[in-house]
Amino acid sequence: MDRPDPAAPESELRQLLQHMADESLRDPTAFRARLVPELRAILDRGRAAAQERLLAERDGLACARHLSDLMDEVIRTVHAAVIHHLYPSDNPSTGERLAIVATGGYGRGTLAPGSDVDLLFLLPYKQTAWGESVVESVLYVLWDLKLKVGHATRSVDECLREGRADMTIRTALLETRLLLGDAALYDELVRRFDKEIVTGTAPEFVDAKLKERDARVAKAGASRYRVEPNVKDGKGGLRDLNTLFWIAKYVYRVRDPKDLVRAGLFTPEEFRQFERCEEFLWRVRCHLHFVTGRAEERLAFDLQRQVAERIGYAPRAGLSGVERFMKAYFTAAKDVGDLTAIVCAELEARQAKPRPMLDRFLGRFRRSRSQALDSDEFVIENNRLTIRGDDAFERDPVNLIRLYWFADRHNLPIHPDASRLATRSLKLIGPSLRADPEANRLFLDILTSRNAPEAVLRLMNEAGVLGRFVPDFGRVVAMMQFNMYHHYTVDEHLLRSIGQLADLEAGRLADAHPLSQQVIPALRHRRALYVALFLHDIAKGRPEDHSVAGARIARTLGPRFGLDAVETDTAAWLVENHLVMSTTAQSRDLSDPRTIESFAKVVQTMERLRLLLILTIADIRAVGPGVWTGWKGELLRTLYYETEVLLGDQTPDVARMDRVRQAQERLRADLPEWDADAFAAYAARHYPAYWLKVDHARRVRHARFMHAAEEAGQTVSTAVETDGFRGVTELTVLSPDHPRLLAIITGACAAAGGNIVDAQIFTTADGFALDTIFLSRAFERDDDELRRAERVAGAIERALKGEVRIADLVEGRRQERGRAKPFEVVPDVVIDNTLSTRHTVVEISGLDRPGLLYDLTTVLGKLNLNITSAHISTFGEKVVDVFYVCDLTGGKVTHPSRQGAIRRALHEVIDAGAEPPRTAAHGAAR
């Protein structure tokens, strides 16, 4: 294919002007009717050429500049046509002057396919009707072209007055470019802006831009490692690079980015890094705009695969093409962060910005700072830790680790000059340093610090030291997992999990995790816990199970770090089993003795149970905002207490009978208005599983709820309750038991958009079902949430009474599926008779979609299976639904042909969601 000719649009526009010169178009409407279609066609062809060029040359900055050049020519053409046909001025007066100036990103000479076109119409102090008419006519044509035009019409004095008062306008004026018109007028603006506004105000500007950046980043996502990043406004995105240049331009008065090297701000290599990041981010942004046909800045999941393919990323080294692309993106975002630190340090040295507050860099540090360093290698400069000489790392490579150890010990941020030198000295981190006992002692001290291990480890990671010192960690740096569950890259998740553990240990999460405060003081293998958490996902991206591979890595690294044999074995065990407690708590019946027995056989000791509990809490909390809920905490606590009984050498059956008796006695004490016969009759309605599984507060509510229904003569009744601590809403249903009951309940929830997180299902001795469905909250306020829950409850009651057809409601909800998500989840159905003493366990996993739980429970009902317990877990786009079932005689499903029929029927349901990427209808969870 021939490469598009960049001069083609300019040539076409000249021809258009020449052709229009022969026509008399004095009427503005006729003028636009003639001009706009021609310009629209030229713009479309120019953008198509830019896209072809982007695909062929893979240069995002060149694409942005090409689009800017195209827009320049369009605006010049519009202006020339307006001057010729509508408002000619052969002998203009001093008032009939006009300069059209590009501002903002367009002023830098770059333009994304969907970006706004920012223009300043600069007029003389004494304006005339001619200037206003020309501006208005130019804008009308641009608007008719469907361009998004950000514009201002001002004199030089007005520009300066607005620039003094508004930092956004001042920034726009900092980046201006004359497109056409009166050069003297534009030169006056540039000269006076520099003299009257910029001079002497650098600290004010820098402070404002950094505060603006903090606010913008907080809105777009505080971490640069969010898995759906904002390319323009997110941390490490294009706006951060713009901010760097704005600050440098304002403080150093440079006009071109290349001048940053001459100003001493960047080394030549750092400037090349600046250019690489800028080009890559522009490439991603241009592809995003072309793919979506709009100014889309968020690199969402459903766009990542398309952009990766357009750029040319293919699967390699165990990573898919989209994962390799996102790793490149996050690496660029990290490099932008490094450049930001360099600029801030240089500005601080020149006192163009306030000295750093410690909390800005190491927000978890709380101890008083000690300024006395017991070292000849390190000094404190501008409240930052740095090295005495540029040869400190060469003379003793252990100093590369010692630098961060001192930062942790003395609560000091590290001077970017020291970080820059550390990055340039990474070649010194080889096998000998990795094997050095002192280096490993210092590293283990950092990892297990009671101060701020997450913050210091992140500094090591951003400098590249951590990935070189622990190469297995280096493999997961900037590695993204292409799913909706994990919010961060693997390395960011690991560092955040260490921070969560430090918070738990320090008691900062005591209100949310009261059990952890009882457990942590009893831990004997604290160092093993920190090492295990640091390594628990370190084998992600490998072909084998990451838990098994991670345990093998832990057995190698444990002794290197300085763990003894017992600590190493404990750390490896924790890594290999780091998912067991979470999986068991969320997808197994915790009232089934076999569940607890199986889990206890894995754990074996109280010390391992304690360690695994704390690791699981930290791991889940570090996945991302909103992933941890009080409901998950409740499940983990229940599993912990149940297992504690077995590991405490109590006889399970005796302990259970005692607990049933104690539960009944406690309930009796809280129902003083009931007589003995009434309570005895009520207690006899419930089987032992009820007394073991339901907490006391809920047992009290159930008793009064069932009594009220009986008094009112209701055979079908519902109740709703919010639970703020666990973040769920309880919906309790009392109804005569029948096989399709759960399907009706789940269908009503699906129709109302309720996301079910768990279900407690009990059958009473007199043939009633007492089911409690737990929904994730949709509203913060209890009154709003209760109204939603009551609507769901009302739909359930109407369905149970035959007043509505649930199937119709669910089908209507299915038509409202949201945006397709480009994920692939391999469907699976597992039928197991070993996980429960009395029931067959059916585990179904696959791609989540609206109404899935209703479809599954409906099929199980048609297969004549009684569901005695249901456990629903959603991990982003993946759902894992577990049902404890029995046949109509109350026995397990053991015959192979019967199991085969169940498996086929369930696969028909779950396979319906396994559609190819970009066509799958995923939507919200049930």
Automatic annotation (TrEMBL):
One of its GO terms (molecular function) is [protein-PII] uridylyltransferase activity. Gene3D superfamilies: 3.30.70.260, Beta Polymerase, domain 2, cca-adding enzyme, domain 2. Its cofactor is Mg(2+). Residues 490-612 form the HD domain. It comes from the Bacteria. It catalyses: [protein-PII]-L-tyrosine + UTP = [protein-PII]-uridylyl-L-tyrosine + diphosphate; [protein-PII]-uridylyl-L-tyrosine + H2O = [protein-PII]-L-tyrosine + UMP + H(+). Its EC number is 2.7.7.59, 3.1.4.-. SMART domains: HDc. Residues 1-372 are annotated as: Uridylyltransferase. GO terms for biological process: regulation of nitrogen utilization. Keywords: Hydrolase, Magnesium, Multifunctional enzyme, Nucleotidyltransferase, Repeat, Transferase. Residues 730-815, 841-921 form the ACT domain. Uridylyltransferase (UTase) activity is inhibited by glutamine, while glutamine activates uridylyl-removing (UR) activity. InterPro entries: ACT-like_dom_sf, ACT_dom, HD/PDEase_dom, HD_domain, NT_sf, PII_UdlTrfase/GS_AdlTrfase, Polymerase_NTP_transf_dom, UTase/UR. HAMAP family: PII_uridylyl_transf. Modifies, by uridylylation and deuridylylation, the PII regulatory proteins (GlnB and homologs), in response to the nitrogen status of the cell that GlnD senses through the glutamine level. Under low glutamine levels, catalyzes the conversion of the PII proteins and UTP to PII-UMP and PPi, while under higher glutamine levels, GlnD hydrolyzes PII-UMP to PII and UMP (deuridylylation). Thus, controls uridylylation state and activity of the PII proteins, and plays an important role in the regulation of nitrogen metabolism. Has four distinct domains: an N-terminal nucleotidyltransferase (NT) domain responsible for UTase activity, a central HD domain that encodes UR activity, and two C-terminal ACT domains that seem to have a role in glutamine sensing. Belongs to the GlnD family. This is Bifunctional uridylyltransferase/uridylyl-removing enzyme.
